[in-house]
């Protein structure tokens, strides 16, 4: 289905389109005629070269204001493949991924990143395609006190960095319920809170409703030293109303840690998180894993095709979108990578003042309309001849 | 700001990117490795050639089903410039545009189009930039019985075609209120109903709140012989909740008649209507006018720049997006044009069954959350350290 010789869409456009036309193509496709490249220190780029991951840096600026100072924040998006075979012991698999990510977070620190976010369920293979509970549920851990959270608290404190860690959560206080959760760790190394995935897919290999239910944590926004942030986990990006509630709660950056494969969603990938940035006047950070993952037992994909063992390829292509509709290029479709983007958070309010989307939202109309549409005896507004 | 030597993004990609890579680029950017070209009859293409407008045809198919037959519908999207100088008498200006559009609708009939939609306020220049009421309000007419509606009723009947006509409406029953309205005329030539623009811009040259208020017609879906259709007028495309309500009322195709200019919105244009198609599992038809319009008196744009007389260029680029995320190429950025797209409406339900977006929508949660967010004493859900 997908030609993985194409490292990224942007590389292909840069290579073939003549410079003058390229500017206009990029203006239409990326919202800027030329990307503002962020110079990254050698300490970061060397780590990337030595450890075989991509690193890219961009800057998205705002206008100078009279009263507010610029609010410059660097966000890091990490995409990666798993490390060990899925047949290895669960703790070994997790540790190997930890080790890889520790190095990328170190590079993020060298690049002066303030907030870093990993992909969805980053400590494990995306095993939900199998519908098997064993051994995959062993990857689940307590959000507040699990080994991954503890490990990252050290790094967060050492690097003065907010870390968003999406894990499979085991909720022992509620009967060992499993959740798909993002843990927010403050730059002082404190557990700040968590968000549970609001919308759960039942599509293709994404048998996630087999493992966990719709989240019960609402739409929290975390007020950090580096801005108000929120997390819309994976499939939640298909639901504009989910994005909206994070905006209504005041988010300035919404991260979208994901795991999704090319044949399913690649044409949608550049659309959804970017539309959310536009509609809600905030930044979005879309993160997807890379590589293919082979499982010990054959499984079927609900598509009438034969049982098989490999899930993927996940197509990476992580990017940042801005409230004014501009976006960065994507990371590679198949390599581990760190995308560093320097944002001026003042752009959010500037875009609100310019476009007036919140002001023209007519929220009471939709509260009422959604309520009516939810009722069992809802009669759609249909006009017939 | 914009290089109008670029006729369309698609032409540029086709010209410069080698065939093998082009397939993958198109798969990522357009959701299909190759567009399915719809052969159009000479009677249609000759009209286009003779009258200097572009014509393009595409097909978007669905899977064969056991029980339902394919529901094949052809939609036509018309984009155009105005004809006479804006200093000419209002009735002459309107008549000249009528004459141009009559020919394009004739070509649509030759191409067996079932539903045709023109751009926003198609009978007039987009004079709202001026903030002048005279003579522009003279373009307003009764939705039910105005001269444009009457003229189109003849064509609709003659061609067995549903026609969506976006006009400035004069509502004499309510104190000569002015509205931005789309009139729906059935293929039997009957006035079927109307929809009034739900969200009104206050941005740049779009001084529309000077002329009319937020619509009071809800989110009607019109059940026609050719499927359930709705209209999201222009600025309403920035509001995902607006798109959603048309979906909740059962729309299979939502038209987005627009008027928007390059410097303001071109990078957003390919994102918003397409995101709506994906999120709501229906087809969307995004239509924008072309050309520049010169007004008799200087006006300012609220951007700190000098007063001027020309509004534009509008960038055309009309396109159709499908529920599975695929989209057609866009029409030209600067020529009049007719985009004919053959759709199988069965794709809507097929995509719903595949992706489950309506089922996973959690509407009661959002009805409640939007209600809370609308209240004067709303406290956003914020977590602090």
From TrEMBL, chains A, B:
Keyword annotations from UniProtKB, A to Z: Hydrolase
InterPro entries associated with the record: Aliph_Amidase/BUP, C-N_Hydrolase, C-N_Hydrolase_sf
Keyword Transferase set for record: no
UniProt xrefs under Pfam families: CN_hydrolase
CN hydrolase domain sequence ranges: 73-345
Keyword match Cytoplasm: no
Annotated protein name in UniProt: Beta-ureidopropionase
Species, as recorded: Bactrocera dorsalis
High-level lineage: Eukaryota, Metazoa, Ecdysozoa, Arthropoda, Hexapoda
Encoding gene per record: LOC105222357
């Amino acid at each position: 289905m997908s030609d993985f010789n194409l490292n990224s869409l942007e590389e292909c456009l840069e290579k073939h389109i003549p410079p003058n036309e390229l500017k206009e193509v990029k203006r239409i496709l990326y919202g800027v005629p030329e990307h503002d490249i962020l110079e990254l220190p050698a300490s970061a780029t060397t780590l990337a070269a030595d450890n075989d991951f991509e690193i890219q840096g961009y800057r998205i600026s705002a206008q100078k204001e009279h009263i507010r100072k610029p609010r410059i924040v660097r966000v890091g998006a990490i995409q990666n493949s798993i490390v060990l075979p899925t047949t290895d012991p669960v703790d070994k698999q997790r540790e190997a991924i930890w080790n890889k990510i520790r190095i990328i977070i170190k590079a993020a620190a060298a690049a002066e990143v303030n907030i870093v976010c990993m992909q969805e369920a980053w400590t494990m293979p995306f095993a939900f395609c199998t519908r098997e509970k064993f051994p995959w549920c062993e990857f689940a851990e307590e959000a507040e006190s699990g080994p991954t959270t503890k490990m990252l608290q050290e790094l967060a404190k050492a690097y003065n960095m907010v870390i968003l860690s999406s894990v499979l959560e085991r909720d022992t206080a509620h009967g060992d319920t499993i959740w798909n959760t993002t843990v927010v760790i403050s730059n002082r190394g404190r557990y700040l809170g968590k968000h549970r995935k609001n919308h759960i897919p039942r599509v293709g290999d994404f048998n996630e409703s087999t493992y966990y239910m719709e989240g019960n944590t609402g739409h929290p926004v975390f007020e950090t030293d580096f801005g108000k942030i929120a997390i819309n986990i994976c499939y939640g990006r298909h639901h504009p109303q989910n994005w909206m509630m994070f905006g209504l709660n005041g988010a300035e950056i919404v991260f979208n840690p994901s795991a999704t494969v090319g044949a399913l969603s690649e044409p949608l990938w550049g659309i959804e998180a970017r539309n959310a940035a536009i509609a809600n006047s905030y930044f979005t950070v879309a993160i997807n894993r890379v590589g293919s993952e082979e499982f010990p037992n054959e499984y079927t994909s609900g598509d009438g095709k034969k049982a098989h063992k490999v899930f993927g390829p996940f197509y990476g292509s992580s990017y940042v979108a801005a409230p004014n509709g501009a976006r960065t290029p994507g990371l590679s479709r198949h390599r581990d990578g760190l995308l560093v983007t320097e944002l001026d958070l003042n752009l959010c309010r500037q875009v609100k003042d310019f476009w007036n989307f919140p002001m023209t939202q007519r929220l009471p109309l939709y509260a009422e309309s959604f309520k009516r549409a939810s009722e069992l005896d809802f009669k759609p507004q249909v006009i017939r001849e």
